[in-house]
Design the sequence.
């Protein structure tokens, strides 16, 4: 249940959010940026220093008068666990507030995946008591933190990962679809504010897409957007383990999907994460797509090697939005 915020809590949250990404900053600058009075900011910063969440970071350069003290968020006060799961493979990375990895690992599990995930979190929390939140990326359709659909009948289907882990460990948790996280990360790293981008990835569980429109991930009315396996004539053809999967037709399938997104969303860019079917195929993709898509509406196609980087960045973006009251 969400707790009631006091004025002191609200002021701390305002100051905390303002300090994210700023680096060393003075109390007077924080006052101007937050709109809070200087005495309120000063008291709030002092309280955050007492708890260790904020630390002193030197002084401003001298301008002839007394140098103001500078403060920054203590990067290791709050740690966040980014955990991804696909079939029987778990990858996790422990991040500080500045996005630095303290520890990470990838493992393939031979016993129930939910049990394995719980054991990982328990172990990490024991080692790092400052763990303040968890973000889980899962292959499959995820709605409201619940794994609704997965290819191949994963045991996680029907499990609300968000509620399960939040209740078990008493900290904020977010569970999201893998491609939505990837798209969020791609957009964050690009540093753009508007436009439309579609990210497409072929993995063990099949092919999925993430969509960003004007800085926001578009998940659809029921979080179904990007479930490419349900497109007409695609059932059973987008997952390497299925009998109808035909490697020789993959470029044709990529072209069809690009054409669909070009006509429905008209994105500026379509990012295709690299796999063997795409090696040396960029020119052919353009040539085939341009037979259908008008030249002035043809999106920029990019074959990218940064799937893991974009995925992790997206999870980190979500982690930075977690709040204690989200439990």
Sequence:
């Amino acid at each position: 249940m969400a707790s009631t915020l006091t004025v002191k809590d609200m002021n701390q949250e305002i100051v905390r959010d303002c300090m994210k990404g700023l680096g060393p900053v003075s109390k007077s600058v924080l006052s101007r940026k937050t709109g809070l009075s200087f005495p309120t900011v000063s008291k709030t910063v002092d309280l955050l220093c007492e708890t260790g969440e904020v630390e002193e970071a030197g002084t401003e350069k001298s301008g002839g008068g007394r140098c103001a003290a500078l403060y920054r968020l203590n990067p290791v006060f709050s740690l966040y666990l980014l955990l991804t799961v696909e079939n029987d493979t778990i990858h996790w990375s422990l991040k500080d507030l500045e996005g630095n990895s303290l520890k990470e690992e990838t493992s393939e599990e031979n016993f129930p995946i939910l049990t394995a995930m719980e054991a990982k979190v328990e172990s990490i929390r024991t080692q790092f008591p400052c763990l303040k939140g968890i973000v889980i990326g899962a292959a499959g359709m995820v709605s409201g933190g619940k794994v609704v659909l997965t290819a191949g009948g994963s045991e996680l289907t029907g499990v609300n990962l968000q509620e399960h882990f939040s209740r078990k460990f008493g900290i904020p948790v977010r569970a999201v679809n893998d491609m939505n996280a990837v798209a969020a990360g791609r957009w964050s790293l690009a540093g753009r504010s508007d436009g439309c981008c579609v990210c497409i990835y072929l993995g063990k569980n099949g092919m999925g897409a993430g969509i960003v429109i004007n800085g926001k991930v578009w998940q659809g009315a029921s979080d179904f957007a990007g479930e490419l396996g349900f497109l007409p004539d695609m059932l059973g053809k987008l997952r390497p383990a299925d009998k109808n999967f035909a490697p020789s037709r993959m470029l044709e399938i990529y072209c069809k999907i690009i054409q669909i997104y070009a006509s429905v969303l008209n994105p500026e860019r379509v990012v295709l994460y690299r796999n063997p079917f795409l090696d040396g195929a960029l020119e052919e993709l353009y040539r085939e797509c341009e037979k259908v898509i008008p030249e002035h509406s043809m999106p920029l196609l990019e074959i990218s090697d940064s799937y893991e980087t974009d995925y992790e960045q997206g999870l980190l973006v979500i982690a930075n939005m977690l709040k204690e009251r989200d439990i």
Notes: The longest strand covers residues 79-86. The chain has a mean pLDDT of 91.
